[in-house]
Structure to design on (1657 residues):
C-alpha cells in the first residue's frame, strides 16, 4: 500500500521560502507541506525551507504550534511567509472526552491549563500546578510532606459518603490518581466541570473529569525534525512561618497555673495550690509545702534542681529544629520527539526527588514514557502510549514530628553524663523518655535530671522523637503503569473508527518496621530480652484494570452551513485488585525490617489478610455536535452505564445531557461592534451524571463473619452472614444546570468567561442504621440530596504588547454554596453527627458545617459578680449553686435557660465561600517574570493544631505562645523562680484561665477545650483559616535566538522560582491550607522553596 | 489486511464481552451466602454461628440477669449502667439494656438466616429444628425482659423500617408452638451434654416457659400452664437423681467437670475455640471483691475480679442458714491462699483448685457470718503454721460489714465459676456457662406443683425441694415449708450467680418486695417507681430502638 504513495512522486519542482512570525523573528521547525500530497519539510534555524513539490501543486500549507495555519499559493518565486500567533482562546482545541473541539465551538464549561502554565509553576505534583488557575476547582495540599497528596473538589462536595475525587483520564485511560505523573510531561490539562460535558463519562462524571494529555506522538507535527528537550530544576525547601511556641519560662509559668485550682465555687477565680500539685510542678516530693518558695533556698526546695536551673536560665530545647532539616528537590525531564512522514514518536525520561523538611522524609520518582503513532496507509493507523512511574517514599516515623512539637521546651533530648545503673534509659546519650520522672538520669554535675526516686508523674510519656526516628521506618514503593494501543480505520474522509485498549496497573508495597523503642511500642529493651514489641508490617497491593473503547466519529457538513460531528462509543471496563497484608511482631533483631517476617516470634499476634475486589462496567454512549454557520451550537449526549457494584435490576442507568451555544458576535447585527466586542458567546446546558463510589459486593449476601464455638471437645467455627445486602442499591445521580458567557474585547485582548451553575445530587449513597429489631446493623441505601450552586469567573488580559515588552494578567474567581437538601429521606429536619469534632450534617446546611456553642469570651471578675447578682442561669443553677467562675470561658445562652444543647449553632463551614486566583506575566526581551497568587476565603475549620497546642486540659506538653486570663490574687512564678501574687487580673485575647481539676470542674471550664460536660464542642479549636498565598514568583531569561544558533540549539532559558514566598492569614498554626489536618505525621510546618531551573531544547 | 484486522476485532469483541454475566459480581474473599449455605458444611457452619450467639448474649455484660436483685448489689467497680442496679436511674438510654436488646435481636437474625437457608433440599432437619428452637428461646428471653416485642421471623431481604411490637400473648404462642413443633425433630439427649439443643433441653425450657406464662394471665397464662410445666419437667427429669456432690473436686462446679450428667444446656467454651485468650466469658469475674491487679497475683494466680456486682448479706445468710449445707463453702472461696500477710499480700487464689491445702499459706479467711470466735479458732487450729497469720474478715465486725466494705479482698468471692486455666482478664474464663441443669428442673417442677397444689401443702413439691437440699447435705423440709418464698430461697442457694435471679423475681412477682427488702442500693420501693407512678418491672425499650423504628412505639410503664 506504500506503493501508491511512491508512484505519485513522479516529477517534482523545488519551492523555497522563509517563515517568520509577526515580530519578524524566524520560525524554526515550522511544517511546510504541499497541499494534496504527502511531500513536506520543516524550516531551519533561519526559518528557511526548500521543498520538492509534485508538479501541479498550487499551494503549500505552513503550520507551527501556537500559530495560525496558513495556506500559501505558489508564486514561482521565493515565498516570504508571516505566521500570525493563533488567537489562543478561540482556536485552542479542548478535550471533551472521546474527542475534542475548538474552544469557539464549545458548549460546556471546560477549563484548560497548558503545558507552559504547568511548567512555570515549578511544582512537583500536577494537581498542585492547577491550584488557583481553574475557577470552581478547589485544590488543597494536605501536608508539607514530600510527595504529599492534594485534595480536589470540583464545584463543591456533592456526595456525603462517596468519594469526592473527580474522574482522571490520562491519555484516554481512566485512572484513580494523577499523582504519579511528572508535571514536565504534561501537554495539557482540561477540566470538565458541567454535567453536559461530564455526562459523556456518565456514571463516573458527577465529581467532574480531569483530562490529562501527556506528550504523545499525536502532538508532534508531521515530518518534524527530531527535537530533544531538557527541563530541570533544583530547589531547596525551608520551613517557614513557624507558629510561636512557648519557651521554657513561659511554659513553666503556664504549667504552674495548670497545677493550681480554685478552692471554692463562689465565682471567685483565685487560684491556689494543693501540696501534691505543687510537687508535681517541679518534680519534687510530697513534703514540699504549698506556702514555700519554689526556688531552692535553705534546703526548702525539694523539686528538681536541674529543672529549676533550666527555668531560671530559660534554657529551651528547639525540639522542632531537631527533627527538621533543609529540604531539597530536583526534577529532570528529557523528552525526545520527532516524526517522519508516517511515523511520529515521543520518548520521555524523568527523575524527581524530594528530600522533605522532616528527617527521614524522602520521595523519589522515575518516569518513563513512550509514544508512537504510525499511518499504515490512507485508511489505517495504529499507535500506542505507555507511561510508567516507579516511586519510592520513606516517611519515617508517624509520631516523631508530633512528639517533637509536643515535647515541652524545658525537657532535654541529651544527657551529659551518668546514668542510673539499673534503669538504663539512654541510647548513647539520648534520653529515651525525656518527659518522665523515673528516668533517673543525672546531669554532668551528677545531679539527677529529675529529683531521684519519684515514681510516676512527669510531663509526658512520649518517646524522644530522635529515638523514635531512629526506630521506625515506613517505606512505600510503587509502580504505576498505564498504556494504550489503538487501531484506527478511516474508510471515508472524516469518518473514524477507533478501537483502543488501555490497561492500567497500580502496584505498591508498604513496609512498616518499628523497634521496641518506637513511640507506641515502647518496652524497655534491657528488661525484655526479646524485642517482643517490635513490629514488622507489610502490604502488597496490585490492581489491574483495562478499558476497551470502541469509538466511531463522523464529521460531515451539509450545504456548508450545517456542521455535524457525531460520536458513538461502546466501552468495556473491568478490573480487580489483590491486597496482601501481614502484620507481625516479636523480633530478636530489628534490622530485618519487613524482609524476614518468618522470624517473628510472637506468632499469636501474626495477622494476615488478602482481600480481593473486582468490578466491571459496560457503557454505550452517543454524542452529537451540531453547528449552524458557526453561530448556533448544539451538543446532545447520552450514556448508558451498567455497573457490577449495584443491585440486580438496578445496575443500568441512563445519563443524558444537552447544551446550546450562541455565538452572538457571528450575527450580522453584531458586525458593527466587532472591532471592540470580538467575541460573545452564550451557553446553556443541562445534564445528568452519576456516582457509584462504593466498594464492590455491597449487594451480595456474603458469609463473612467468623464465629467461634465448640460442642464439647469439638470446635465449631462458624461463618455467619455479614452486613446485609443492599438489595436495591443504585446510582447516585446529579442534575446540573449551567449558564455561561464567553467574551472577548478588542480582538480578544481581554477575554474571559462567566458561569453560573446549579447542581442537585440525589439518591446519595448513605450508610444508615437499620432498626435494632432487624438485628442487622447498617446498610447502604440511596438516600439524601445535596445542592451546590455557584458562580465562576475567569479573566485574561493583555495589558501591553509590543515587540519587546508583553504584560498579561489573568484572574479567576469562584464561589460555591453547598447545602444538604435531604438527609436520610427527610427534607425538613434531621441531622447526624459525623464525628466528635462538632461536625454535623443538618438539612439546609453545608455538609462541612461547624456546629457547637458560641464562644463569648471570658467571665471577668466584674462580669461574674453581676451575673451572680442577676442569677444568670449560666452561672447560678436552679438550686442556687454557683457553677461558673471568674476566668472561665463563656458561651452564649440563646434561650436564657442556661447552657443546654439547644444553644449550639452552626458557626461556619470548612469549605471556602469563595476562592480566587491572580497571575501576571511580564516579558521584556529575553526576560520573563511571573507571579501567581491564590486565595481561599470564608473557611471555619476545626483545627487539630489548635486543639493540641491550646489545650488547657494538658499540662505536660508544649503550648502555643499565648496569653490567658489570670485572676487577681493568683500566685505566679517570676523569671527568678520566686512566687509573687498578681494584684490585678490579666485579661488577654479572650482566652480563659488555665486551672486544674479540683474534682468538680474541668481544667478550663467546659467551654474552651474538651471539658467534661461538652466533649463535642470545642470553640477554642475553631479557627478562621482563610488565606491569601503567593504561590510563586519566577524570573527567567531566555538566550537570544542569535546566540542559540551559535550553540546549535533551538532555545535555552534559565529561571529561578520561589514557591509560597508569602502567606497572609489569621490562622496561628502551621499552614492554613492544612489547618484541618489531623496532628499525625501529616501536619507540619509551612515551607518556602527556592528553585533554579533550565529549559533547553535542541 | 483489512480482513485480518476486522477478524481480530471481531474475535476480541466476542471474547471480552461474550459472557452475558459480565456485570455479575463474584466475591472471592468471602463465600457467597446462597452458594455456601446450600452445602452441608456451609449450613453446619451457619448453625454453629447461631450457637455462638449464646456467647454474645451471656459471655459479657450480665447485668440484665443478676443486677438489681435481692442477691446482688452494685459493687465497687460499678455497673456499665448503674440504672439496672438501682432502678432509680434506669432510663431508655441505658446502655446495658440496649446491648442486650441488640445482641438478642442479632442472634434472632442469625437464626432467621438459618431457618431461611434450612428450607432448601438436603438440609438437616435436626439442624433446622435447633435453629428454630434457639430462636424461640431468644424470644422467651425478650418477652420476659420487655413484654411486647417485635416478632421478626423472616429473612431480611431488603431494608425494613417498621417493626411494630407484637403482644406478649402472641410472642408466647409463637415460642410454645415453635418449641413444641421442634421437640420431636430434635435428637434425644446423649449421655454427656455437648451443648447442643436436644429433646431434654426442649422439655426443660417448655416447662420453664409454661411456668412463666402461668403467672401472667395478660400474656395468655392460666392454671393449666402449671400442669403442663409439671409434665414437661417430669419428662426432663426422667427419674434421674442428683447424684453428684455440689462441692468438692468431684462436684458439679469443679473446674473441668463442666460436662457432668446434671447439665442440660450450657454456653460452651474451650481454650481452643476462642478468637483471643481474652474473648472468653466474664462469669468468673463478676461476683466478688476486688483482689488486685495482675501484680497482686502469685503462685497459681487469681481471677481478675471486675467487682461490678457484690453478693448481698441476704445471699450469705441464705447459704449459711443450715450449718450442714455444703453450698456456702461450695459457692464462696472462704480461704484466700497466697504469700505474705495482710490484705495486700500476693494472692494465689487458684491454688485451692490445684494443691492440697495443708501446704498453703492462707492470707485471708472469711468465716461464715454465723461463725463464732471459737469456730475460727478451731479453723486455725487445724493448721496453725499456715493459718495463724491469716486476716480474718468477719462478715459483721462491729462497725463494718461485708456489704459496706469496699477494700480489696474485703468479702468472699463466688468461686463456682473460677477458671484456673484462664489468663488474667475479666473476660478470660473458658468455663461453660450453665444455662439449665437438672437441679433447676426439680425446682421448676416444685414451683409448678406449689402453684397447682397450693402453698405450704404440696407433698410432691416438698419432695422435689428435698432432692435438691439432700444433695447439698442440708436438712429436709416438711410440706409447710413448700411455699413460693421458700422455693425462692432454695433457688438462691442452689443457683447463686447463675443467670436466673432477676427473671425468677420478675416471674414470681417478688421483684418489688424482695429488692427493697434485701438490696441496699434500693432502700425503698419508691426507688422502683418511674414515670406515671408505675413500677419499673419490665425493662425500657431502648431509646435507639424507638428512634430508629418507623412506627410509633409505646414505651413500657415507668419510663
Amino acid at each position: 500500500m506504500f506503493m501508491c504513495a511512491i508512484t505519485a512522486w513522479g516529477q517534482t519542482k523545488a519551492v523555497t521560502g522563509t517563515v517568520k512570525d509577526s515580530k519578524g523573528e524566524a520560525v524554526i521547525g515550522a511544517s511546510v507541506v504541499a497541499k494534496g500530497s504527502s511531500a513536506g519539510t520543516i524550516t531551519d534555524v533561519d526559518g528557511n525551507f526548500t521543498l520538492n513539490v509534485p508538479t501541479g501543486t498550487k499551494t503549500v500549507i505552513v503550520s507551527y504550534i501556537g500559530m495560525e495555519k496558513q495556506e500559501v499559493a505558489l508564486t514561482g518565486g521565493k515565498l516570504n511567509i508571516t505566521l500570525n500567533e493563533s488567537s489562543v482562546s478561540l482556536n485552542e482545541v479542548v478535550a471533551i472526552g472521546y474527542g475534542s473541539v475548538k474552544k469557539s465551538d464549545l458548549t460546556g464549561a471546560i477549563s484548560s491549563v497548558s503545558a507552559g502554565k504547568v511548567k512555570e509553576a515549578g511544582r512537583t505534583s500536577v494537581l498542585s500546578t492547577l491550584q488557583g488557575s481553574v475557577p470552581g476547582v478547589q485544590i488543597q495540599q494536605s501536608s508539607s510532606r514530600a510527595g504529599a497528596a492534594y485534595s480536589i473538589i470540583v464545584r463543591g462536595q456533592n456526595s456525603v459518603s462517596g468519594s469526592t475525587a473527580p474522574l482522571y483520564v490520562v491519555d484516554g485511560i481512566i485512572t484513580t490518581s494523577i499523582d504519579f505523573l511528572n508535571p514536565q510531561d504534561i501537554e495539557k490539562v482540561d477540566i470538565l466541570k458541567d454535567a453536559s460535558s461530564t455526562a459523556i463519562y456518565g456514571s463516573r462524571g458527577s465529581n467532574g473529569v480531569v483530562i490529562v494529555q501527556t506528550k504523545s506522538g499525536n502532538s508532534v507535527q508531521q515530518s518534524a525534525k527530531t527535537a530533544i528537550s531538557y527541563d530541570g530544576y533544583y530547589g531547596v525547601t525551608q520551613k517557614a512561618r513557624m507558629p510561636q511556641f512557648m519557651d521554657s519560662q513561659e511554659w513553666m509559668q503556664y504549667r504552674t497555673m495548670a497545677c493550681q485550682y480554685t478552692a471554692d465555687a463562689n465565682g471567685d477565680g483565685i487560684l491556689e495550690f494543693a501540696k501534691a500539685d505543687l510537687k508535681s510542678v517541679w518534680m519534687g516530693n510530697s513534703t514540699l509545702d504549698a506556702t514555700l518558695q519554689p526556688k531552692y533556698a535553705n534546703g526548702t526546695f525539694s523539686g528538681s534542681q536541674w529543672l529549676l536551673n533550666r527555668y531560671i536560665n530559660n534554657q529551651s530545647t528547639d525540639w522542632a529544629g531537631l527533627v527538621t532539616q533543609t529540604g531539597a528537590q530536583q526534577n529532570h525531564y528529557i523528552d525526545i520527539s520527532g516524526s517522519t512522514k508516517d511515523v511520529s514518536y515521543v520518548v520521555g525520561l524523568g527523575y524527581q526527588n524530594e528530600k522533605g523538611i522532616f528527617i527521614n522524609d524522602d520521595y523519589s520518582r522515575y518516569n518513563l514514557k513512550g509514544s508512537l503513532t504510525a499511518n499504515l496507509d490512507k485508511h489505517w493507523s495504529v499507535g500506542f502510549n505507555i507511561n510508567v512511574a516507579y516511586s519510592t517514599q520513606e516517611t519515617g516515623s508517624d509520631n516523631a514530628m508530633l512528639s517533637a512539637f509536643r515535647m515541652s521546651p524545658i525537657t532535654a533530648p541529651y544527657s551529659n553524663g551518668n546514668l542510673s545503673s539499673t534503669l538504663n534509659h539512654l541510647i548513647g546519650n539520648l534520653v529515651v523518655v525525656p518527659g518522665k520522672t523515673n528516668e533517673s538520669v543525672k546531669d554532668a554535675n551528677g545531679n539527677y535530671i529529675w529529683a531521684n526516686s519519684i515514681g510516676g508523674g512527669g510531663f509526658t510519656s512520649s518517646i524522644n522523637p530522635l529515638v523514635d526516628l531512629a526506630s521506625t521506618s515506613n517505606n512505600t514503593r510503587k509502580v504505576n503503569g498505564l498504556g494504550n494501543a489503538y487501531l484506527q480505520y478511516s474508510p471515508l474522509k472524516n469518518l473514524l473508527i477507533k478501537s483502543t485498549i488501555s490497561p492500567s496497573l497500580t502496584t505498591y508495597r508498604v513496609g512498616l518496621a518499628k523497634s521496641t523503642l518506637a513511640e507506641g511500642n515502647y518496652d524497655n529493651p534491657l528488661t525484655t530480652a526479646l524485642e517482643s514489641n517490635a513490629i514488622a508490617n507489610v502490604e502488597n497491593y496490585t490492581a489491574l484494570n483495562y478499558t476497551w473503547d470502541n469509538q466511531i466519529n463522523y464529521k460531515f457538513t451539509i450545504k456548508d452551513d450545517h456542521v455535524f460531528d457525531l460520536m458513538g462509543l461502546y466501552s468495556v471496563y473491568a478490573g480487580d485488585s489483590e491486597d496482601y497484608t501481614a502484620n507481625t511482631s516479636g523480633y530478636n533483631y530489628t534490622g530485618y525490617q519487613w524482609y524476614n517476617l518468618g522470624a517473628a516470634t510472637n506468632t499469636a499476634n501474626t495477622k494476615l489478610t488478602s482481600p480481593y475486589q473486582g468490578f466491571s462496567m459496560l457503557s454505550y454512549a452517543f454524542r452529537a455536535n451540531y453547528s449552524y454557520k458557526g453561530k448556533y451550537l448544539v451538543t446532545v449526549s447520552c450514556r448508558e452505564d451498567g455497573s457490577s457494584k449495584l443491585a440486580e435490576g438496578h445496575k443500568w442507568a441512563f445519563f443524558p445531557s444537552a447544551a446550546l451555544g450562541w455565538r452572538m458576535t457571528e450575527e450580522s447585527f453584531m458586525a458593527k461592534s466587532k472591532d471592540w466586542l470580538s467575541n460573545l458567546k452564550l451557553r446553556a446546558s443541562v445534564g445528568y451524571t452519576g456516582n457509584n463510589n462504593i466498594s464492590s459486593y455491597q449487594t451480595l449476601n456474603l458469609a463473612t463473619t467468623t464465629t467461634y464455638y465448640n460442642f464439647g471437645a469439638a470446635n465449631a467455627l462458624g461463618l455467619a452472614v455479614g452486613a446485609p445486602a443492599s438489595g436495591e442499591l443504585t446510582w447516585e445521580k446529579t442534575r446540573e444546570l449551567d449558564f455561561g458567557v464567553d467574551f472577548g474585547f478588542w480582538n480578544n485582548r481581554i477575554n474571559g468567561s462567566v458561569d453560573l451553575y446549579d447542581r442537585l445530587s440525589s439518591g446519595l449513597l448513605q450508610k444508615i442504621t437499620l432498626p435494632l429489631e432487624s438485628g442487622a446493623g447498617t446498610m447502604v441505601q440511596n438516600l439524601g440530596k445535596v445542592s451546590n450552586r455557584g458562580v465562576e469567573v475567569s479573566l485574561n488580559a493583555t495589558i501591553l504588547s509590543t515587540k519587546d515588552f508583553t504584560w498579561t494578567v489573568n484572574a479567576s474567581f469562584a464561589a460555591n454554596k453547598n447545602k444538604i437538601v435531604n438527609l436520610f429521606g427527610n427534607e425538613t429536619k434531621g441531622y447526624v453527627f459525623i464525628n466528635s469534632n462538632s461536625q454535623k450534617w443538618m438539612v439546609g446546611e453545608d455538609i462541612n458545617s461547624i456546629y457547637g456553642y458560641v464562644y463569648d469570651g471570658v467571665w471577668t471578675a466584674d462580669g461574674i459578680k453581676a451575673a451572680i447578682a442577676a442569677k444568670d442561669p449560666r452561672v447560678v443553677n436552679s438550686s442556687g449553686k454557683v457553677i461558673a467562675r471568674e476566668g472561665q470561658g463563656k458561651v452564649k445562652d440563646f434561650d436564657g435557660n442556661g447552657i443546654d444543647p439547644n444553644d449550639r449553632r452552626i458557626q461556619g463551614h470548612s469549605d471556602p465561600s469563595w476562592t480566587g486566583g491572580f497571575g501576571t506575566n511580564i516579558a521584556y526581551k529575553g526576560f520573563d517574570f511571573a507571579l501567581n497568587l491564590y486565595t481561599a476565603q470564608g473557611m471555619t475549620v476545626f483545627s487539630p493544631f489548635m486543639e493540641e497546642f491550646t489545650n488547657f486540659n494538658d499540662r505536660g506538653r508544649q503550648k502555643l505562645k499565648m496569653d490567658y486570663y489570670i485572676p487577681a490574687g493568683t500566685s505566679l512564678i517570676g523569671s527568678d523562680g520566686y512566687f509573687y501574687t498578681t494584684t490585678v487580673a490579666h485579661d488577654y485575647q479572650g482566652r480563659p484561665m488555665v486551672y486544674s481539676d479540683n474534682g468538680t470542674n474541668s481544667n478550663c471550664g467546659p467551654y474552651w477545650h474538651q471539658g467534661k460536660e461538652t466533649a463535642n464542642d470545642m470553640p477554642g479549636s475553631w479557627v478562621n483559616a482563610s488565606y491569601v498565598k503567593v504561590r510563586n514568583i519566577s524570573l527567567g531569561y531566555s538566550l537570544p535566538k542569535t546566540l542559540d544558533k551559535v550553540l546549535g540549539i533551538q532555545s535555552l532559558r534559565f529561571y529561578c522560582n520561589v514557591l509560597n514566598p508569602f502567606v497572609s492569614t489569621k490562622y496561628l498554626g502551621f499552614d492554613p491550607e492544612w489547618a484541618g489536618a489531623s496532628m499525625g505525621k501529616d501536619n507540619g510546618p509551612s515551607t518556602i522553596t527556592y528553585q533554579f531551573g533550565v529549559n533547553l531544547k535542541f | 489486511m483489512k480482513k485480518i484486522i476486522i477478524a481480530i476485532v471481531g474475535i476480541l469483541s466476542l471474547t471480552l464481552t461474550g459472557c452475558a454475566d459480565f456485570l455479575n459480581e463474584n466475591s472471592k474473599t468471602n463465600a457467597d451466602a446462597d452458594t455456601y449455605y446450600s452445602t452441608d458444611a456451609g449450613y453446619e457452619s451457619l448453625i454453629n454461628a447461631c450457637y455462638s450467639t449464646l456467647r454474645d448474649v451471656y459471655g459479657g455484660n450480665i447485668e440484665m440477669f443478676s443486677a438489681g436483685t435481692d442477691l446482688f448489689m452494685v459493687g465497687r467497680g460499678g455497673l456499665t449502667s448503674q440504672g439496672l442496679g438501682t432502678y432509680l436511674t434506669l432510663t431508655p438510654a441505658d446502655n446495658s439494656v440496649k446491648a442486650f436488646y441488640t445482641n438478642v435481636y442479632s442472634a434472632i437474625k442469625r437464626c432467621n438466616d438459618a431457618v431461611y437457608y434450612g428450607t432448601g433440599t438436603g438440609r438437616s432437619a435436626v439442624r433446622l429444628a435447633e435453629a428454630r428452637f434457639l430462636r424461640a428461646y431468644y424470644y422467651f428471653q425478650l418477652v420476659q425482659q420487655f413484654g411486647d416485642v417485635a416478632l421478626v421471623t423472616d429473612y431480611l431481604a431488603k431494608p425494613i423500617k417498621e417493626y411494630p411490637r407484637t403482644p406478649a400473648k402472641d410472642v408466647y404462642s409463637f415460642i410454645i408452638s415453635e418449641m413444641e413443633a421442634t421437640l420431636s425433630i430434635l435428637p434425644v439427649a446423649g449421655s454427656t451434654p455437648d451443648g447442643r439443643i436436644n429433646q431434654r433441653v426442649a422439655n426443660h425450657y417448655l416447662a420453664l416457659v409454661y411456668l412463666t406464662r402461668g403467672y401472667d394471665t395478660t400474656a395468655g397464662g392460666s392454671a393449666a400452664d402449671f400442669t403442663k410445666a409439671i409434665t414437661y419437667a417430669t419428662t426432663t427429669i426422667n427419674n434421674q437423681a442428683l447424684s453428684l456432690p455440689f462441692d468438692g473436686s468431684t462436684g458439679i462446679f469443679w473446674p473441668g467437670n463442666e460436662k457432668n450428667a446434671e447439665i442440660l444446656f450450657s454456653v460452651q467454651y474451650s481454650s481452643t475455640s476462642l478468637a483471643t485468650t481474652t474473648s472468653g466469658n466474664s462469669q468468673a469475674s463478676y461476683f466478688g471483691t476486688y483482689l488486685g491487679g495482675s501484680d497482686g497475683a502469685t503462685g497459681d494466680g487469681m481471677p481478675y475480679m471486675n467487682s461490678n456486682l457484690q453478693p448481698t448479706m441476704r445471699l450469705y445468710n441464705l447459704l449459711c442458714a443450715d450449718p450442714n449445707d455444703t453450698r456456702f463453702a461450695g459457692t464462696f472461696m472462704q480461704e484466700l491462699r497466697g504469700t505474705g500477710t495482710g490484705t495486700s499480700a500476693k494472692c494465689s487464689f487458684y491454688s485451692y483448685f490445684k494443691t492440697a491445702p495443708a501446704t498453703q499459706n492462707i492470707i485471708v479467711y472469711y468465716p461464715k457470718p454465723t461463725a463464732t470466735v471459737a469456730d475460727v479458732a478451731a479453723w486455725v487450729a487445724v493448721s496453725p503454721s499456715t493459718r495463724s497469720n491469716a486476716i480474718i474478715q468477719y462478715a459483721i465486725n462491729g462497725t463494718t460489714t461485708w456489704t459496706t466494705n469496699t477494700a480489696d479482698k474485703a468479702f468472699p468471692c463466688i468461686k463456682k465459676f473460677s477458671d484456673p486455666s484462664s489468663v488474667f482478664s475479666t473476660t478470660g474464663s473458658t468455663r461453660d456457662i450453665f444455662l439449665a441443669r437438672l437441679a433447676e428442673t426439680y425446682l421448676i417442677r416444685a414451683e409448678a406443683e406449689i402453684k397447682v397444689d397450693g402453698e405450704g401443702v404440696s407433698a410432691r413439691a416438698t419432695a422435689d425441694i428435698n432432692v435438691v437440699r439432700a444433695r447439698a447435705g442440708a436438712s429436709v423440709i416438711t410440706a409447710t415449708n413448700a411455699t413460693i418464698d421458700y422455693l425462692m430461697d432454695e433457688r438462691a442457694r442452689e443457683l447463686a450467680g447463675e443467670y436466673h435471679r432477676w427473671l425468677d423475681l420478675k416471674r414470681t412477682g417478688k421483684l418489688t418486695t424482695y429488692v427493697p427488702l434485701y438490696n441496699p442500693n434500693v432502700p425503698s420501693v419508691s426507688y422502683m417507681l418511674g414515670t406515671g407512678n408505675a413500677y419499673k418491672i419490665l425493662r425500657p425499650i431502648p431509646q435507639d430502638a424507638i428512634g430508629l423504628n418507623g412506627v410509633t412505639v409505646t414505651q413500657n410503664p415507668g419510663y
